[in-house]
Amino acid sequence: MSNLIKLNGDVASIVENEWTIVNLPAGQAEERKQAGKVVLFKLTGEKTVTDEQIADTVIPASGKVLVPLSVFIARKAELQTRIAASEIGVWIATHEVLESLIENQPDLNALPIIAVNVERFADGRIFSLGTLLRKRYGYKNELRAVGDVLRDQLFFLKRSGFTSYLIRADRSAEEALASLKDFTTPYQGAVDEALPVFKRYNRAVK
Amino acid sequence: MYKYDEIDQQIVDERVAQFRDQTRRYLAGELTEDEFRPLRLQNGLYIQRQAPMLRIAVPYGMLSSRQLRKLGDIAKKYDKAYGHFSTRQNLQLNWPKVEDVPDILAELATVEMHAIQTSGNCIRNITTDQFVGIAPDEVVDPRAMAEIMRQWSTFHPEFALLPRKFKIAVSGTQDDRAVVQVHDIGMEFYLDSNKKIAVKVWVGGGLGRTPILGSVIREHLEWQHALTYCEAIVRVYNLHGRRDNMFKARIKILVKALGIDEFKRQVEAEWAHLKDAPNTITEAELARVSKHFDAMPYETLPAHDASFDAAIASNPAFAAWAKRSLHVHKIPGYRAVTLSLKPHGSAPGDASTEQMHVIADLAEQYSFGELRVSHEQNLILADVKLGDLFAVWQKARAHGLATPNIGLLTDIICCPGGDFCSLANAKSIPIAVAIQQQFDNLDYLHDIGDIELNISGCMNACGHHHVGHIGILGVDKDGSEWYQVSIGGSQGNNASIGSVIGPSFSAEEMPAVVQKLIDVYLKERTPEEQFIDTVRRLGVVPFKAHVYAKDEVAA
Ligand code: SF4
User: Fold this and answer.
1) Which CATH class is domain B143-290?
2) Cβ separation of B239 and A46 shorter than 8 Å?
3) Distances (CA, A) of B151 to A9, B26, B156, B164
4) What residues are in contact with ligand 1 under a 6 Å CB criterion?
5) Are A41 and B241 a contacting pair at CB < 8 A?
6) Half-sphere exposure (CA, 13 Å, Cβ side) for B60?
7) What residues does CATH 3.90.480.20 cover in chain B?
8) Confidence (pLDDT) at B423
9) In this predicted complex, what is the ipTM?
């Protein structure tokens, strides 16, 4: 049974997962702390991807695949025809910077899907990444949350622009569906509903 | 004060249902400890040493009589018939049962209250000056903006799981009583040269193990942009704040590492996209919310009241209380009253169910049915007529709420510490109690005069020890409890962080150490100096010398 929830307009349902996630092969577990530029804190303790890992990543020859951002950037040339055939999506880790995706793929909407992988559910960077992809970079196609995706974060993911959610394998997607409707009338404007409540309703004191 | 409409009510009701289901799943084993933790924390529920602790939100410190009565009832029904008012202007229950919490939240929702975001790595309860709306030096009443910010920050999807907790304070007075400089964001409202409401924005202040005062990130922000500008700040923090080490995860560490100039550049770049976005506040919304904070229906009264003056003249106990507990009011003939939750010999900030009911009655009878919680952990009746003060005092005194020690040495700010808090290095309440006993002489306390003594049980600094004129911090040395003492901290416009005087002390030594600090002050002070002034003039050295001088008589 699939564990993928997909939002179609306002209706959420469990659908088959057509996309295979391609992972980097394990690196030399070297965790470097990098300092400098904007990313001063981004990489503290987070894995840096090596050229070998990128080269060694096995991309299935056919079918729809989600490739890691670093692989997408480095090996874009060899993926060109498949990108044109809408068979390639990109997944991003929460510590990666969106600018590197935009530089290499100015037309984001040529990608049928972008996924953000959240390693620990408590990593709230995913919400800012979703918001930026939608609002800043005008991405319109499917935006998927993958990784440690649990039902109690779904409402926030939805509000941050995510339209599909691959619920962690040991949890029930069926039960998770309910959490998308936790709140009927949220206060602030966000991605799914841009207007704050005071611009949607007449709240005049009666 | 702000009254819910059906939208506000629906949100708290839905929150109760959500948390009820989360608790059910946790108790059924469907959620692990790790998964439940952020969920319960965002509902103010800690698992503590003795029992869980539930922190109930009191937005910007405002309570109605009806709400306080309900809090008293809840404390009685689900706890040991008392509650603890914290330095975040919240109420904490120390002994509720996890399985009761959904019911407690449901009861709170019936009086427009909740425990949303009182803990966890999210935007916390927004705090302000306890004399908001009535202080003569107030330039802008920031309550409407605080309420607008409360709504904006409630379940803000982008900021649901930040690297660490995030605290915002607002102020609108010349003399800052909201301590905006020690918050993650401090919003100082003022009137600009065009007489328009503007905000001076501070960022990156905080106490905790790396105490630091905030930096000004923007001198002038039009009020309409308060939300989008905060979004820009919190977004930069959310994306770039450290998540690998919880002790380095607060925004102050990011601001310090990048430098305020670079941090500001990033925030402004972000804001360039957010400025004028839909979350920009409208005139209509500010007007709508401001209506809830309209001036009370004050009577026109003379500045003096004969019965009050007579009572002061004839009753020294009343006069002593009035001297410490009353505060000037912008309306003639009215005073704000601080009810002391610091009787000598009990935990600072605690109030029993009975006391809560008494205070609720007092507020209803004499102060338009409203009251406030101060970050000094006392309760305030904001609008009492001079002619009613004697009656208020009598009733308060009969219930242990009129210790005339407001602003004095025994008006101690104190976190729950090792008696309750699982993070503590040391107990803090017994230290407060011992100091109160050491100085249990009101004439002497009045002679010592204005002084702030703050105690935290660990470097998380919930007791604000860094900004106490005397600060006491519980530290752990080889598994036993010790106390480090600092002096010279201060809140307000001249905020400063205290300096540690030297090696730490045992619990038994603490009353004598404070005594020695006071002795130096009494000996060295000039007639107009308060303790903090003497410390600023002389520095730490003479205090240190006396405290650590070898005792002539070894006890
Ligand atoms: S300062 Fe430390 S001991 Fe005191 S309440 Fe905060 S975390 Fe607990």
Assistant:
1) alpha beta
2) no
3) 26, 28, 9, 20
4) B 415-417, 421, 423-424, 456-458, 460-463
5) yes
6) 27
7) 6-109, 306-398
8) 87
9) 0.94
Nearest to B285 among A46, A135, A198 (CB): A198
Taking the CA of residue A92 and the nearest CA in chain B, the distance in Å comes to 14
Please check the confidence at residue A29 and state whether its pLDDT lies above 60. no
Number of H helices, E strands in chain B: 18, 20
CATH fold of B306-398 = Sulfite Reductase Hemoprotein; domain 2 (3.90.480)
Q: Which helix (H) or strand (E) holds B55?
A: strand B52-56
Supply the pTM of this predicted model: 0.90
> Is the CATH number of domain B413-547 2.60.40.420?
no
Query: Residue B74 CA to chain centroid, in angstroms?
Result: 22
Helix (H), strand (E) counts: chain A = 8, 8
Is pLDDT at B546 greater than 90 in this prediction? yes
Closest partner residue to B158 among A127, A197, A203, by Cβ?
A127
Name the pairing type of β-strands B215-222 and B326-327.
unpaired
Nearest to B459 by CA among B433, B425, B489, B488: B425
Give tens-digit pLDDT for A109-164.
999 999 999 999 999 999 999 999 999 999 999 999 999 999 999 999 999 999 99
- At the topology level, CATH places domain A4-22+44-200 in TIM Barrel (3.20.20)
How would CATH label the architecture of B6-109? Alpha-Beta Complex (3.90)
Q: How far apart are the C-alpha atoms of B457 and A178, rounded to whole Å?
A: 42
